[in-house]
Amino acid sequence: MKNLKVIFAIFYLISLFSCNNGTAQDTTVVVPPAAKLSNEKIQVAILLDASNSMDGLIEQAKSRLWNIINTLTTLKYEGKEPGIEIALYMYGNDGLSVSTNFIRQVTPFTSDLDLISEKLFAITTNGGSEYCGAVIEQAVKKLDWGRERNNMKLIYIAGNEPFTQGSISYKEAISEAVSKDIYINTIHCGSCLEGEKGSWKDGADRGKGKYFCINSNEKVLYVVTPYDEQINNCNVRLNKTYIYYGSSGYSSFTNQSAQDMNAVSISTANATERVVSKSKSVYNNMSWDLVDKISADSTYIKNIDVKTLPKEYQNLNKEQLQDEIDKKTKERDDIQKEISQLSKKRMDYIASQTKTSNTQDDFGNAVNTSIMEVAKIKGYKVIGN
Hints:
The chain is of the alpha/beta class. Helices cover 42% and strands 15% of the residues. It is globular and about 65 Å long.
């Protein structure tokens, strides 16, 4: 099993986020920060406009989530893999409370990638009172930002209304972000000129980040490769290596499959990107998967509550259970290596097919482009696919 350097929160309480008929219920997701084993950390806060006109933006975010994660996993700091944490906010949805400036923290910083996917796919749009300054201020003040100099801290705010709306000044909010070494990147869903007039470019300039303008209603384009089917077939075998445990084990185990299906619902290519993410150390489920847990803490098997395990494991003694875990560990390692090899071939194929084509301006490409630019500034280097 590859050396796992990202340790996830042990337990989290999930309050179901939903928007019924366009009305957002006032719920909160509580996720303890990921355990810190090293100073290297990349934190990405995504702030999405969820007003009526932003259905296309939400779809692009869903379509590019795993591609963005795979971009982040190529980065190393002095040869070390950084921890990766993602937070998600929605704003501009009139189904939210006016007392919160129509803003909700969907998730705080978390390394639970299935949780991020689950909550992203639950977002629906409604109404429109978009206060960019307010949502930036909340993200800057309420999220648990790292304090080490080698931390890479990014905010992405996407929307289409003027950046100046609301009672909270975006200039002051961004000034505080910059004081914490947080880079503000703005993604205007509309023409570049309109975005400049609406102060979206000024927001990025003040935040030391990048300004992008995209057509949020355009469908994300994918390159179909000869390796997609093989990679997705690997996922079927990969999922069989997970052994759930604990009070939330079964629900998290089933959520893994649910997020597989969410990825498939977008496209085969998007599902492939998710499988590639699942082959990497960033995709760690020690809070509910016994294989990941024992890999991090071999002594835990002494205290396992066998009643929370799948039925086929409940009557095994500790030695037999350890044998099963060792077997699953070996199987998973082999499958992940196979996916990694196929992924490299896939990326080479995509590169060969897109040499002469123009890069599409969409949410994902905007995020990936700025990630690479900030990475250079912060001393991170691209190593591997």
